[in-house]
Amino acid sequence: MAQPVSKIWPHRGPRRNDLAQNGERSEMPKALLDDKFARSVERPEKGFVEYTDERIGGYEVRVFATRIVGNYRYRPKGSSAKKRLPLGEHPHMTMAQLRSAAETARGKVRDGGDPLAELDAIKEERRRKEAVDAVAVVTVNDAIDAFTPALKARKKSWQQDLDYYARDFQPTFGTRAIASVTKAELSVMLIKKAATAAVAANRLRSALLIFFDWCVEATLIESSPMIGIKKPTKNEKKKSDDKEDIRALSDAELVYLWKAIGAHPRLSHSLRAALKVILLTGQRPNEIAGLELRELNHIQIGANGEAYADIPARRMKGGRRHVWPISEPVAEIIRKELERQKQSAKATGTPVSEYVFASRYQDKHRLARHSLSHALRRLIEALPDNGEQADVVKGLKADRPTPHALRRTCLTGMGRLRVPREIRKAVAAHKEDDVLGDHYDAHDYFDEKKEALDRWAAHVMALVSDKEETGNALPMKMGAA
Fold this sequence. Notes:
Helices cover 47% and strands 9% of the residues. It is an alpha+beta fold.
């Protein structure tokens, strides 16, 4: 049995540089600090007794009543002071494991290392991480709120992206930590979305790419989980003679679709009005969907045909302010929609929306651009195949028009009405691609645009009121005008 020194050292005062009565430094007893030692060593009732290993220099233990604590004493290279590295405790560790830890520490010291400094660095890093974790976690909702100003500055269609987040992303991930969202989860979400809305799935992916790239730039995450996620739906564009087909409505299709839009029970009032306004004005679907009250001028009854919309540059695809006159049929549609919203807000006790065409799903926010596409697709799919105008329905279903096709129908129809090309381009807010148009021609063609839009609206109203016979003078497929 190993024999301890006669003195039992108190727990709060470990022995250091202890001198015997004759003035010489007392030595710790040596023993082979193995499992046999742990079983046979005498345990003090109080305090501890120190032993040093007879084979591994610097390895020592402190024997307490119920445990044995291992340490390794060493002097780092270039230092005059000794350090004590804690190795662990028996019985939580075996004596063999303590010996192995001591051997490892001795090897590091021989190689010029400082194992205690390494341990302190690990503890400091752990404390730093714990401090970071103690800070409130940034959730997906928090990140989107912070990202919104940057998104508005980056994209004119920012509201569409926010709508995608609110509808498809935030309900599942909103309260999650932004750093916890994984690539696999996002991929599965997009695949499920593509099963019901193929185009919307691609647009959702694009919106998420922008969002997570910003999160990386803002150091909210180290890398984007969207990296490597491909479009869930491949775009298959129909082509003819190496040019993309361009869809426009015939007169018969225009009349049939106009009446179907007004009669479809599942279309909201805002969607019906917005689709008709696109057809009557030839404006871009997204610009109509986001039309704001403050952009309307002289829309009230009795304005003597002076109504117009003034769209700021921030909302225009070309980044230029665009003014387009409002014909009386369009003004009537807008007035009815605004009155309906006013009555609805009064009945529900909610504020009136700031948008002309408010969404019924987004708490009085604007219509989403994709809502127009979805509505038109559902409407055409539900048209009866049998009836007096079965051929018209067959054509609509075989080559389904989009909201952009309504814009194209308006602009192409104006050509049929002999509206000059430059006026049609002015109505459509298409930029002139020459020096004159870019730098010198500041004329906005307001009067000419008004005459063109009034003429087209009168033509459409005559068609849908059966005052003018329909014909197929407007081809189904048109080349670029």
